[in-house]
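Risk register update: the risk of archive-format incompatibility is retired. Evidence:
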Amino acid sequence: SGSRQLTRHGGRVSRPAPSPDGKSLAYTQANDDRFSFKRRRLFVMPFGGGEAKEILPNFDRSIEDIAWTSDSKALLVTYEAEGRREIARVTLDGKTSTIVEDVGASIEMPYASGGFSVAGDGTVAYIRSAIGVPAEVTLETSFIAQDTLAKSTPA
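Archived output:
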């Protein structure tokens, strides 16, 4: 039929995201255990199949949404942290840096659902929300300048 199973985890696998260069596939997985809290873990595997690598094995947050950077060298992820939703950049070797901390969340804040997407130049569009502030679409570009600076700075 043209389809084939790539993962064989016990538990729920979700949020598949192919990399822009077509070489990797990221996804989240939550164990099928008897605990009420299911921490979604982040995995990356070769696009055609093969061994998956857990990117943040010691991360104590549950990964919500994922998207690749345009160069396929990192992922942007959302997770809940101390009552707020954050977006962070995660490299394939597990280095994490927070980009924004005011992404809309659905906990006791109606009309403030949080989501994000990434433009080809790396600009992050997301729903910004805070107590007393209605949800609004916001663009984040500050980490693009940092990323570009890191690439252009001689080692």
